[in-house]
TrEMBL record:
Claim: Transferase is one of the keywords in the record: yes
Entry EC no(s): 2.4.1.-
Protein name, as recorded: Glycosyltransferase
Family: Belongs to the UDP-glycosyltransferase family.
GO terms for MF: UDP-glucosyltransferase activity
InterPro entries (alphabetical): Glyco_transf_N, UDP-glycosyltransf_plant, UDP_glucos_trans, UDP_glycos_trans_CS
Domain Glycosyltransferase N-terminal: 8-154
Short name of one Pfam family: UDPGT
Region described as Disordered: spans on this chain: 68-88
UniProt keyword list: Glycosyltransferase, Transferase
Length: 509
C-alpha cells in the first residue's frame, strides 16, 4: 500500500509584529499547495501588548493554521563556558537574541511532539531565530529562512562579515567620506548603515554570528519580487554577497502583503477612517503612519501638525504616544503613558483641520487605507512590510526612517527603486514643519518630477500584481521552493519505509 505523505511547515517568526505578518502571509501560499502550517510563537519578554493583540487577530483570521506558544519563561541554557553571545551589553536586541536562543529546548520538545511516522516537518525561521538551526539539525528537519527585509537589506547583512574582515576596523572609524561597496546595491556611506553595523559592539558581533549561520539553511525566502530588486536578486543568486561559502537558493516570493479585509457589509462595521476616506476625492489624501513601534515626542508631533496644517492638503494621520529614548522616534521602548489625542497635538489643531484632515490614535487598517481610491501619497517609516504595502497600492512614498534597517530601505526606495523621496531631517534629527509642508505640496502637485514619481509607483504596483499572478516570477519561485521541500519529504518517507538507512536525515546544501 502506498504511504500517504503528510507535511507540516512550521513557521517560527520570533518576536515582533513586523516579523509575524510576512510569516502569516507566507502561510497562505503554503496552504494552497496542500501543506499544513503551524506557527510557533514566543511571548515578548517585555509583555508587548501590541504583539499580543496581533497574535489574537492572527488566530481569528488564520483559522487553518495551528498556533503554538512556547513557554513564557524559557529555561536557561545549560551551564557551559562563557559564550561570545553573552558579552556584556545593555542593547535590548542582544538580550532578545539570548532570549530566543534559550527557547531552543522548548522548541525541540514541540517539534518532537509534532513529528509522527510518515509525517515530515520543515522549519521556516526568522533571521533572529538562527540559533534554531541547531534544533533543525538535531532533528534532521530541513530549515529555511524568511527574510523580513527586502533583498537589498539582506544582501548588506550577508556581506557585512566579509567586508568587516577585509576592512579590519569598525566601519564608523572609516569616516563618512568612505563609500562601502556592497554587491547589488547602491554605494553606502557609514551613516546610512544601522548604527549597530557601523559600530563593533556586542550587537554588531551578534549580527556577524547570525549572518554567518544563514548559509547553513536549505534556502532563503525573500519577501520581495524580481522586478522590484533585479540587480540585488541577481547578486544574491550569483553568490556575490557571502564571501566564504556558497549561498543557498534564493526564492523571491513576495510581495507577502495582506489582501486586506473584505468590505464591510454595513457602513458602521468599517473603521472610522475608512468612512472618512469614502467622503474624500480620488487621490487627494496623504496617509501618515510610522509602523507598530514608530512614535514621536510632542515637539516633533507639533512640527508635523504645523506642516500638515500649512500644506493645505487632506491627510489621515496615525498618532502614537511618545516613547522613551532619544526623542526622535528611534527607540522601540514603549512609554507607559498613553495620552489622548487632544493632549498630544497642538491646541486647536484638530478643530482647525477637521474639514480636510483626520488624526486617529495608535492604529488604522493600513492596507485598506493605502488601497483606497482617495489615497494619494504615503508618509512612511520605511519598514519593509509598510514599504511593500505602499508598492502594492501604487502610492509614491515620503520616506522618514526611524530605526533598525529603515535607513537602508530609504536609500533603496529613493535611489534604486525610485519610488519615493526623503523627508530631510535637521542637524538634531528632527523633521521641521517647513519640510513637511513643502514635501506634501510637491508630492501631491503637478510638477514633472511628481508626475513621474506617481507613474513609477503605478508601474511598480502593476509589476507586483504580475509577480504573484499565475505564471509570475514570485509564483514560480514559490513553486520551486515547494518542489525542494517535497523532494526532501519524499526522501524522508522512503527512509521511513526502510528503503534508506536513516529516516529524515538527508539535508543537501
Amino acid at each position: 500500500m502506498e504511504t500517504r505523505r503528510t507535511t507540516t511547515v512550521v513557521l517560527y517568526p520570533g518576536i515582533g509584529v513586523g516579523h509575524l505578518s510576512p510569516m502569516l502571509e507566507l502561510s497562505r501560499g503554503i496552504l494552497r499547495h496542500g501543506i499544513d502550517v503551524a506557527v510557533v510563537l514566543v511571548e515578548s519578554p517585555s509583555g508587548d501588548s501590541g504583539f499580543a493583540a496581533a497574535v489574537a487577530r492572527a488566530r481569528s483570521t488564520h483559522t487553518s493554521v495551528s498556533f503554538h506558544v512556547l513557554p513564557t519563561s524559557p529555561p536557561s541554557p545549560p551551564a557551559a563556558a562563557p559564550s561570545s553571545d553573552d558579552a556584556e551589553d545593555d542593547h535590548p536586541i542582544v538580550g532578545l537574541l539570548r532570549y530566543l536562543r534559550a527557547t531552543n529546548a522548548p522548541l525541540r520538545d514541540l517539534l518532537s511532539s509534532l513529528s509522527r511516522p510518515a509525517h515530515a516537518l520543515a522549519l521556516v525561521l526568522d533571521m533572529f531565530c538562527a540559533h534554531a538551526l541547531d534544533v533543525a539539525s538535531e532533528l534532521a528537519i530541513p530549515a529555511y529562512f524568511l527574510s523580513a527585509t527586502g533583498a537589498a537589506a539582506l544582501a548588506v547583512f550577508l556581506a557585512v562579515p566579509g567586508l568587516s574582515a577585509r576592512v579590519g576596523a569598525a566601519f564608523r572609524d572609516l569616516g563618512d567620506d568612505v563609500v562601502l561597496p556592497f554587491a547589488g546595491v547602491p554605494p553606502l556611506k557609514v551613516s546610512q548603515l544601522p548604527p549597530w553595523l557601523a559600530d563593533d559592539g556586542a550587537l554588531f558581533q551578534a549580527s556577524l554570528r547570525l549572518a554567518a549561520r544563514v548559509p547553513e539553511a536549505r534556502g532563503i525566502l525573500v519577501n520581495s519580487f524580481l522586478a522590484l530588486e533585479p540587480r540585488t536578486v541577481q547578486a544574491l543568486r550569483d553568490g556575490l554577497c557571502v564571501h566564504d561559502r556558497p549561498t543557498p537558493p534564493v526564492y523571491c516570493v513576495g510581495p507577502l502583503v495582506s489582501p486586506g479585509a473584505v468590505a464591510a457589509a454595513r457602513e458602521d462595521d468599517a473603521h472610522e477612517c475608512l468612512r472618512w476616506m469614502d467622503a474624500q476625492p480620488d487621490r487627494s489624501v496623504v496617509f501618515l503612519c510610522f509602523g507598530s513601534m514608530g512614535a514621536f515626542p510632542k515637539h516633533q508631533l507639533a512640527e508635523i501638525a504645523d506642516g500638515l496644517e500649512r500644506s493645505g492638503h487632506r491627510f489621515l494621520w496615525v498618532v502614537r504616544s511618545p516613547r522613551s529614548g532619544d526623542g526622535r522616534g528611534a527607540s522601540p521602548v514603549m512609554n507607559p503613558a498613553d495620552a489622548p489625542l487632544d493632549e498630544l497635538l497642538p491646541a486647536g489643531f484638530m478643530e482647525r483641520t477637521k474639514d480636510r484632515g483626520l488624526a486617529v490614535k495608535s492604529w488604522a487598517p493600513q492596507v485598506e487605507v493605502l488601497r483606497h481610491r482617495a489615497a494619494g501619497a504615503f508618509v512612511t517609516h520605511c519598514g519593509w512590510n509598510s514599504t511593500l504595502e505602499g508598492v502594492a497600492a501604487g502610492l509614491p512614498m515620503l520616506c522618514w526612517p526611524l530605526y533598525a534597517e529603515q535607513g537602508l530601505n530609504k536609500v533603496f526606495i529613493v535611489e534604486e527603486m525610485r519610488l519615493g523621496v526623503e523627508m530631510v531631517k535637521d542637524g538634531k534629527g528632527f523633521v521641521r514643519a517647513e519640510e513637511v509642508k513643502e514635501k506634501l505640496r510637491w508630492v501631491m502637485g503637478e510638477s514633472g518630477g511628481a508626475r513621474e514619481l506617481r507613474e513609477r509607483a503605478a508601474a511598480a504596483r502593476d509589476k507586483a500584481a504580475e509577480a504573484v499572478a499565475d505564471g509570475g516570477s514570485s509564483q514560480a519561485a514559490f513553486v520551486e521552493f515547494v518542489k525542494d521541500l517535497e523532494g526532501f519529504v519524499l526522501w524522508g518517507i522512503l527512509a521511513f519505509e526502510g528503503r534508506l538507512l536513516r529516516p529524515f536525515s538527508i539535508v543537501v546544501h
